[in-house]
């Protein structure tokens, strides 16, 4: 549809605000800033006209376009390839790994390796940034709800990484879709009656009397397409036939066309690439003459030049849907016949599948092969679609059942749970092997657990944990490796349920331990599962040797790229192993998890890996970095259609001493945890509350929270909770509670024997001691922590030592550790502990500033990250790869860093941050 412009204002009638917003977007691009918009509105409401206005207003920009097509949703990277095709020459300037991943994704090279999804995202970001070096780039994506899953995820990823590039991404969608949450939105509503009347009068000047015009305006309800596509025949209008809707209008237009024209339109609608040559070959195959298209041209339904384009996306959809099944099969058969199987085997297989009118094993085999290629390209959604259609076409019951199970597993991975359930029901109708039946039961339990978490059903969560255990028992006689993995899954689920399960974790652990006792642990999976079952069944001290062996195997597995499955499946387990053994290697382990996610392109793993890295950053005293990593993880979770990660801000906020934010988050976590059966979240919220209040010096509140947290032994953070309980108990003169907590802490730390454990033990014992013994223990704690990367705990030990010295020795002596502790807390951004140290310094007679500022606080979290990485000697390209931004954005941030810090070179950065 050609947009009708208001000549006086240069905007679309009734769309002044929307057009001005799009012009402002273009102005921002011209000034060097990036912009993203999501246009939301019903079919025909004017989104496409606004996109046309945007393209026409961007004559000085490079405009890239893509249109989501319903029948093309199953072909991975199809939409992305459509968008990027005009700027693909810029790929030659990309780093080789990015270029190769992009070329593999688009089928330009075939090395047999799967394209790295994150490298593809970075490549697209780099491609757009390179194109924008010449002039601003505007990416216009219509009907984004019909883009293939991988393309949509990649573009949402790119949309969140644009910063300093003159690149705009504008999406149009009928309804909000997963992945766009948080992106700037422009709602497109109906026209008011006055604007609707003016638009209609401009389309039918002098041809409508007032009564007919009023009737059309009333029935169109402000929908511009309904107004403009009202039947053009004034006689028909006066006869009283007003379109009941845009789709009905298109159906009426198409129904009046000759049979050959309708068939020709159907073939064009079924071929989403818009390849004019391919359409021509398909028409020749069907013996249709090009002249048959003339009536469609005359109505403005379609144009064919270098590309085949329907005048509105809705027209394509209606053309395809208003034909019979036989006609659609004939169109797809023609397209399959003229699609080169060597160049585009997957599209050919998909057309063949849609052309099939009966069971066909050959087509099913082709679809199965296409599914394998889709998985190699990272297209799990495409693989699920291919496998689902293969199931429908498979004649052999056993093969059909096996393919249905594989398809169900693929649908679960993309969170398409209803489809997964249906396919499991199909699989159950066929002859399954014992192993397939066990896998089916396992998948059904995974779906039940995911559903229970989604709706917040505590009873269903507990039931699912028991079912996980039953599945593991079933698998033990069939495949011990799968059974071991299933037991670990059951143990992990039980840890998540935590205190809500009323002894469930121990019950699962006893069962798993008895079953696994028959097996000799050999692999990291075996060792970890045996150790975790042992830990939950008999306790921390008795299980410590097994836990340490498991951690050693886990660390060794970081050198084996083939162990990626373990990190993907059990993100909670490695964090727990680190903390239960009082190890100091969380930074290295989490860095490996992030590297594995980025190297393998595993979307589902990266948010959890980034959160693990954030936890390590907290312990290392890098609170700004931790906050940036949590924000990054949250953004990526949204971009890949995962639920936003709600509670990981709690620990960061607690250590920062941000009372308002930490209180808000912990209150929400406690309410949600109780309602939804998330027992681990409850413990985490109480632990964070204890840390916050110890920092603020509110020891009674800290002790109350620690007691609540200590009602259940949550693996991972319970060991550190004991140290908080000792300090809070001593400060509240509740020596009984403090000594009870210390006894548990002493048993665990002695069993661990690491510098981190011994530092925590000595610090807590010092709190309970007096005289020279206390001083010796504080110095011992400081010495142990100095041998670790536990920077925040080292500062805590110095603070406690300084506080003790102020009360038990010359105040001037106390100033040294107190001043050092305050400086460290300020640098880390732990402002509640910094203020506590400041008050002690003041009491020791030293003048202090009320609100100290952390070194480098003038930098934003991302600027600080970039400065630190540059200080370590990384290049802009290497920094971009770590932070999932473009090299141009890194350079932009570094210029701001140099200005804010008053430095001129990377050498000065190395001195400050290296």
From TrEMBL:
Transcription regulation among keywords: yes
InterPro entries xrefs: AAA_16, P-loop_NTPase, Sig_transdc_resp-reg_C-effctor, Tscrpt_reg_LuxR_C, WH-like_DNA-bd_sf
GO biological process, one term: regulation of DNA-templated transcription
Domain HTH luxR-type, first and last residues per copy: 852-914
Highest taxon of the lineage: Bacteria
Keyword vocabulary terms for this entry: DNA-binding, Transcription, Transcription regulation
Keyword Transcription: yes
Any one Gene Ontology molecular-function term assigned to this protein's record: DNA binding
Region entry Disordered, spans: 839-861
Record-linked PROSITE patterns: HTH_LUXR_2 (PS50043)
Protein name as annotated: LuxR family transcriptional regulator fused with ATPase domain [Amycolatopsis mediterranei S699]
Species in which this protein is naturally found: Mycolicibacterium parafortuitum
